[in-house]
Structure formats: structure tokens, C-alpha cells
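Quick one, T. Sequence first:
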Amino acid sequence: MVWLFEMGLVDNRFLLYAIAMLSESDTIAALATAPGPGPIGIIRISGPSSLSIASRIFTPFNPSAALDPRKLIYGRIAEPATGIVRDEVLLAFMPGPNSYTGEDVVEIFAHGSGATTGAILDIVFSLGARPARPGEFTRRAFLSGRMDLAQAEAVADLVDASCSQAANMALAQMQGNLSKKVDEIRELLLAWLVRLHAVLDFGDDAGELDEKSFFSALSQKALPGLDALLAASQSGQILREGIRIVLVGRPNVGKSSLLNAFLGRSRALVTPISGTTRDCIEEKALVQGYGVVFTDTAGLGPSQDAVELLGMEKTREVISQCHLVILVVDLSQGILPEDEDLFQQLQSRPLIVAANKSDLSAPGQGLQEAPPGMSNVAWVRVSALTGHNLDKLASTMLSIVQKKNPHEWNVAPNVRHRAAISRARENLLAVLNAGPGGLPLDLAAIEIQDAVNALGEISGHTANPDILDQVFSRFCIGK
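C-alpha cells:
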């Protein structure tokens, strides 16, 4: 049986679940809604004693009502010992395995004050349940087979999503789209791993390995599949963390005003005094459904001020880490040599020129199009003061980022997934680079086995307790 686990032919969840049932067969409870005052507070109870606890503290207002599965029942919660009523609630019972955790689950929909939900939880704990640890409900859902590990991670991503696009991506992953792509590659490798072991262990009966088909499967199917997943991971990271856009330009061209215009509030100090912004100011905004992290920077130009020079050095650092640079120029002054010099310095980065202060030019006057030296990038006339063309600037910057990082909502590996995919890719390259006959079959089998195990970490087929702790440590209590 052990070799089946080692080869990835048996899902490690079954072993982990068996261990969990021996060591953690207790009943847990927690507040499933955000702490603090609110109209509703949901208390979730999961485990073998859930129904028993609910029956002792809940009395339906309708005497003939029973705790039938998956029905909302109206009643009161009272302390068993004293009969003191704590709240009037709705209660739902969901028996396992058809519940969120795969266990018996009770959810109590109470009034959302901390005093009320706290009092109900105290009663539940007094009857034998214990407080749930962060992410423990979803961890139990994974261990019981209700979802795989990538789907479980998507639950946290959906809770944390800061924009609709990130929520769409998390939902697609929660529905198993990423797992399906990964498992297709893993199952291909697993089939060849079985074949390798058959040739190694039963050579006379199994015959020789079809090396041409083997190397074709690795080079034309598995490796391109891994490369596609790695490419998609960049888009996923952008959606999870936000598009990083840096505002750059000479002092006093309106960078801070442009930041304030996107935020819809006065965040950066704006004055006619050159060099007002001396440090980088970072703020998040929602732009046409995307999360964007704007960084307003110190003006780049000649200076003898030590603090201003430090600010310029910080500006160059954030430029190297961003997804897009917006070079802000002042239309009322025209394009100066300093603007052209900055433009040349930024050519290696995705770039837009925002020609600001268009409101200071009469219609038909001023620069309507990019000058010849700047005509190879997008040029947008805007006014941070009046809001003119801000929508056009937003659409242009999102279009450029999307073109550089084409996103796939259905497949967006995170940092942990990307590390596992990269390891699997290295294993395949070790076999492919050796070429047919270049690597003994037993060593090739080891490399393919490592690749199978690495990909299994994504969905949880080859998960271990350390990986689970890493994944679920970022969850909140109650989820």
C-alpha cells in the first residue's frame, strides 16, 4: 500500500483524513460572519455533536417543527440549565457528507451584536464544542473530499478579493478549473510513470519503453501545459495584488493631482511649489473593475536637496517593480528637454504619456498628438483638475497591462502553485535534456515521480501536514 501513496496513485487526503478522524473528531464552532455589530451573525457548528448541541439549546416556535435537514426553522436559543433565552434565531441543520465540511453542520442565524453571538457561542462551548482554529472548517472540507486544496485556497481568495475581476478568478478556481488543468498534466505523467515502473520491474513481460512516444508526451503536451500555467500565474498575481502603476514626471507637472483624481479624494498634497512630493505615496483604487495600486513619486530632475535626492532614488526603485509607468507632462509648458530625457530613460518599461493640464489650452491649441520623439507609446491628453479624458487614460492603461499579461480567469496559479509547477518543469527538463537513452530509466522514473508529486501538492493529492498548515494559516476564524 505504501508504494501506491509514494507513486501518487492514492490520494493522500484519505490518509490525512483517517489521521484527522482519530485525533480531531471533536465538534468545533465559530462565528462565520465578520466580527462587530451587524444585522446578522452566523454561528457555524461542525462535527459529530452538532445536532445534539442544537437540540439542547434550540426550541422551535412551532411545536410540531423538527430539525429537518436543509430547512430554516424559526425559534429561540436558551441556556439549557437556566432556560434563559438569549435570542430568537433561524437555524439550519445540514447532515454530512452533504455539507460544507462533509460533517454534520448546524448554522444559527442570530442578531449580529457581539454580545448576542458571544453568548450563544459560550453556550455551545459549554456543551462540548471547542473554538475552531483559523480555516478549520475549510480544512475539514478538504480532508473529507468536498474540495481539493486549490479549491480551498480559492475560498480565501474570494473572501479577500478587492475587485470584481479578482473575485471572478477566485470563483473559477473554486469551481475546479485550475485543478482540472493541473490534473490533466499530472495524470499524463502518472500514466507514463506506471509504464516506466512496469518496464523496470517486469521487463520481460512488459516489453521495452516506447521512448519516442514518451519524449513526445513530455515535450509536446506536458511541458507546454506547464509553461501555459506559469504564464497565467503572472496575470493571477496582478489580479490578486493589484496592477502597480507609477506616476513619474518633472516636479509640479500634476502627478499628485492625477493621483487624487483617480482616488476621488485629496490624498497627496498639491501646491504650486516645486518638489512638494519628496517620498513615494502608495494608494489603492478600483479602476473599471480592476484593483490598481498607484504610486505618486518625487519629481525627477536636477536637485541639490539631499531629501529630494533620496526621494528620486526611491522613485527609480518602484519604477523597476511596477507593471506600468505613466509619464506625466505639462501641456501648458510644452514638452521640455527634461521630459524627453525621462521618456528615454523609461523606454524599457510599459509606458503611457499623460499630457496633463489640457484645461489650460484653448480648444485647438497646444499639442494635440504626441511629438515625434514620443510617438511610439500611447499619448492621452488629460486634465486632473476637470477630469477630462480620465476614463480614456484608465482604459488605455488597463489595455496595455492586459496585453502584456493576458489573463485567463479559469486558470491563475498563485505563488505556491507557481513554485510547484516550476519544480515539475525542472524535473521534465532533466529528462528531456538528457535525450532518448541519455538517462537510465530508473533515474527518469525518479524525475517523473518528483514531477507528479509536485503537481499533486497543488490539488492536495500529495499534500502533507506542513503544506496544509501553510495554506490554511492565511484563513480567518470561521472559514
